[in-house]
Amino acid sequence: MSEPLRIAITKGRLLDDSIRMFQKAGASCSELLDPGRRLVLDVPELGLSAVLAKAPDVVTYVEQGVCALGIVGKDTLMEVGGSFYEVLDLGYGRCRFALAAPRGFSLSARRGTLRIASKYPNVTRSFFRSLGQDVTVIKIEGSVELAPVLGLADAIVDIVETGNTLKANGLEIVSEVAPVSARLIVNTAAMKLRKSEILELTEKCRGVLNA
Ligand code: PRP
């Protein structure tokens, strides 16, 4: 019997949805449901060893080949890029990137260089490049909605799910930037070396997601 396939999974909301998907595919997920402080957990029914990691680290582990597979949001993939195969849109973790600003803000009415705060500077630069607009991007680590409230930025590019955080802080969507959802990514060498196991898992996931 071959070694389990190592799969890096983003901790938090995507992990909960991933557990549900694995359960539908026939796994009990007993270790994943009660991990304690452990970061490597077996999912024997699917031949997987799950590694719990922060989103950008999921990409690093898959790129470097220490994990054959990864589950990570499209937001992180758009921001950090990298070399891997994106094989499946898992459909969960659905939200969107949006440009948001205080009520009354208008992109066309602005003079001078806009200041845009974001946890995602590359996504932000690429969005404004597509508009042909020059902006100053200010990198913020979290609670980005604070930046316009405090007067640090004119607007933000951030993840919007329900829109409640924007609303509660007097902000509204100016423009949609890109849809986001969880993706299954695969290391390029693993795709050759363990192709049949990876394709089998991908098809199992696709099957339960479409059911
Ligand atoms: C994300 C995002 C928004 C919020 C949007 O933040 O950055 O702040 O969720 O969700 P909503 O539209 O449903 O209100 P997260 O909770 O990941 O924390 P962070 O702000 O520290 O990044």
**CATH fold descriptor of the largest domain:** D-Maltodextrin-Binding Protein, domain 2
* Unreliable parts: none
Q: What is the domain tally? A: 2
Instruction: Report the total helices.
Output: 9
CATH superfamily of the largest domain: Periplasmic binding protein-like II
Can you list the strand order of the major beta sheet?
A: 2-3-1-4-11-5
Q: What is the typical, i.e. mean, pLDDT?
A: 96
Query: Alpha-carbon distance between the termini?
Result: 30 Å
Report the helical percentage. Answer: 25-40%
What's the helix-strand series?
EHHEEHEHEEEHEHEHEEHH
Per DSSP E runs of 2 or more residues, the count of β-strands stands at: 11
The ligands found in this model are:
1-O-pyrophosphono-5-O-phosphono-alpha-D-ribofuranose
**Which architecture of the largest domain does the CATH hierarchy give at level 2?**
3-Layer(aba) Sandwich
Shape: elongated
Structural class: alpha/beta
- Give me the Rg, rounded: 19 Å
CATH class designation of the largest domain: Alpha Beta
Highlighted features:
single chain, D-Maltodextrin-Binding Protein, domain 2, 6-stranded mixed beta sheet, 9 helices, binds 1-O-pyrophosphono-5-O-phosphono-alpha-D-ribofuranose
Q: Would you give an account of this structure?
A:
The protein has 211 residues and is α/β, with parallel strands linked by helices. It folds into two domains: 5-93 and 181-210, D-Maltodextrin-Binding Protein, domain 2, CATH 3.40.190.10; 95-180, D-Maltodextrin-Binding Protein, domain 2 (3-Layer(aba) Sandwich). The chain contains nine helices and eleven strands. The longest helix has 16 residues, at 195-210. 36% of the residues are buried. The model has no long low-confidence stretch (mean pLDDT 96).
